[in-house]
Amino acid sequence: MELYQKTAAELSAMLNNKEVSAVELTKAAFARTAQVEDKVGAYITLTEEQALADAAAIDAKRAAGEALSPLAGIPVSVKDNICTKGVKTTCASKMLENFLPPYNATVTDKLHAAGLIMTGKTNLDEFAMGSSCENSALQKTRNPHNLDHVTGGSSGGAAASVAAGEVSIAVGSDTGGSIRQPASFCGVVGMKPTYGTVSRYGLIAFASSLDQIGPFGRCVQDAAMLADVLMGHDKMDSTSVPREYENLTAAINPDIRGMKIGLPKEYFGEGISQEVSKAVLAAAETYKQLGAEVVEISLPLSKYALPIYYILSSAEASSNLARFDGVKYGYRARDFDGLVDLYVKSRSEGFGPEVQRRIMLGTYVLSSGYYDAYYKKARAAQRAIRADYARAFEQIDVILTPVAPTTAYKIGEKTSDPLQMYMGDICTVSVNIAGLPALVQPCGYDSAKLPIGMQLIGPRFGEQKLINAGVAFEQASGLSNIVAL
Amino acid sequence: MRYEPVIGLEVHAELSTKTKIFCGCSTAFGAEINTHVCPVCTGQPGALPVLNKQVVHYAAKMGVATHCRINQLCKSDRKNYFYPDLPKAYQISQFDVPICEDGYVDFEVDGEPKRVRFERIHFEEDAGKLLHDEGEGTVVDFNRCGVPLIEMVTKPDIHSSAEAKEFLETIKTTLSYLQICDCRMEEGSIRCDVNVSVRPEGSQEFGTRVEMKNINSFSAAVRAIDYEVNRQIEVLEDGGKIIQETRRWDDSKVKNLVMRSKEDAQDYRYFPDPDLVAVEIDDAWMEQIKSEIPELPQSRYKRYIQEIGLQPKEARIISDAFDKACLLDEGISMNRVDSRAIANWILSDISKYLNDKGMELKDTKLTAAKLVDMIELIEKNVISGNAGKKVLIQLFETDDSVDAIVEKLGLKQVSDEGAIQKLVDEVLAANPKSVEDYKNGKKNVVGFLVGQCMKASKGKGNPKMINQCLNQTLAKM
Q: Between 1.10.10.10, 3.10.20.600, 3.90.1300.10, 3.40.640.10, what CATH number should domain A3-256+461-477 receive?
């Protein structure tokens, strides 16, 4: 077995046993990347030199007998909407193509403090707006399971980097499914933690009330280990929740006998492909065999989640992205006549069509005369959806659903129909609207050998339940650590 | 026809917190361009605001002092608009739930009581500054970005520029009493926008209102209001109509020009800032805020007139200045000397010294206890009033006690009767001509002779006793 095929947990053990050094691991990661990156295109920027220097520093610490955290010395890729001081952070946009952040995101600092080795910055849909990674203005990323198919998005680069074995773990972000859907399409594990449990400081905002950073891995334990690094209170983020953050990895317990798993009937109806439904329902059967109780539940407001999501996320995006005005940083139009022309040209030329579409949509729903009809109503509906979930979690421990209506579709298949593309988010957005944690992992393959994912949704701060249920399914199904290519 | 102006003000005051409203940068004025900046206040992608609690504290303090209802649960909202001095392209402010609502201040205009009601007070962040004369192009200085402001919005209760000026003075005094604003007008710590309309006297309906911006001093507010009131009256007298618009005041040209009309009014697309959580002031915090409100200027003003017998003008001078009022009240509370005497020293020599030096009391070493010590020595005839002036200078500038200063400068008066008689006898012997003049009825030579005695005593003779002794001795001659 090659190093690139191993999980982070396995690599961690090898590092501890001095079977391998961080420098060797890092070199192996870049060697694998050199092998597959031409096909996959996961990265926008590679930081090999810095990575090797960081790895050498970790090796020195280990040699000196310093106490290191479990993932110290393990290569990790970082989505390119998370600020890395002095390393280009582009959001896959022409607007920030050459942007060098003057500071580190809190998670960047945390990764560094925990000794992880950043290999580079991964591709995404521009400003994380999209579901296929095709909206990247800078780079094409292909699904390692079939290079003609999309990776999903927006964290397509992160998912692909893990699926292709370029790294064992990756950091992504999820506003409406941006970790979970590409994890599902690429056959890897991804977790969107409870809103407020991972600092957003330094995550270039798409929709502040929905954005959440989270981990990718090829097994649930790896995702848990990375989550343990990422999660925690940060006083630089007012929405970060001050509480005790228990170590998820240490508390993994795959004995799920007696766990109550809800299957919301609304998630298995029209619009969801037969193959996907079947695979997820089969997973439910597996859970029954493992001693869990599976019950049908109803989340009647689910059908409103998509419009609520597109109103709230676009509203916030229109304001969050207003700062890209050509004045301080980022793209500035070459020729302009006066201030307004500077704004109009810089923004028209710097932002891609999907970003512009959402800015317009968001500006519209916040405008005087429309605010009450759209934004305010969406906020009220958001509260109702939260209540919907809260009611469900009075009776059950976790909810099991599909992640997306289909498996990874072909590149270019949906780009001409934005609405069709939006429909693909139907299973994931309500989790962000309700601020809940959710775990995605593979549960099978379709007839074209493309992975199918399943989604476990937990109550607020219920990450441990998700991890336990995830590990239990992994052990029973053997669907773990799938390296493509 | 006679017209009544109807005026409402929006006053912005910079709060004197050490750090900015959403980051740890310094709020100090006058630093080199773009040195008090960080990722947060320059709106770097990904940076997030964290509300400075002191801002909430100060804003609520102003609300309590102006009889507002405090919304103990309030929130922050985004006001969206593009301008190069606003790096996030939105200002974090408060929209539908401001921290304070429905207050008022009382003051006097030409001796008549006046009340102006507040619609609201909210906190928000200041924008940066555009510098147009720094060589090529325009430079943006972000130092001021994120300096905390409170915006105080009045109801249209003001009816003349004189009322507006007194209102603004009252706000300024209140801010300085609460110690929440430096009130440095030249640094722009207090700025205001003015809403003006006019209506026929006696009418209850409001006329069309015009907003004026770019008013940078209280005197400019007076000029701007007078100009706009006259302009509106002229338009109406000529049979014209007032257009709802925003006009920009140009104080150097003493006129205003249209900035934008109602049709161009911006839609700020306010919405709750998702980066910030609700602001909650619990009851304990509220009590703390209330406990920090000192007796306010209007109350002290009345007390100084009624209890010490100061003239309104005198009472105003002291009550307008928090530090002077505190000095007086602390002195009074010691109950050792005449209150009026303390007030007199503050109104005369102390004020003069501070004016001459361009200082504030806190920049000097003077304390109420020492001032009272000094006045007490005068009252007990230990030193003269003139000597007191010399002592005062030392009290401003040194840490010495009054006794030590009197000792050091040798200012103790000669109040011994025998010594004074000896002094008088010597001076009379040395000035026979004056004695002759006195005998011939020229009584005013006494003044000259007192002066000679003071000189002979090197200023230490008790002038009252010298005067008495001279008169008695001369009368006997």
A: 3.90.1300.10
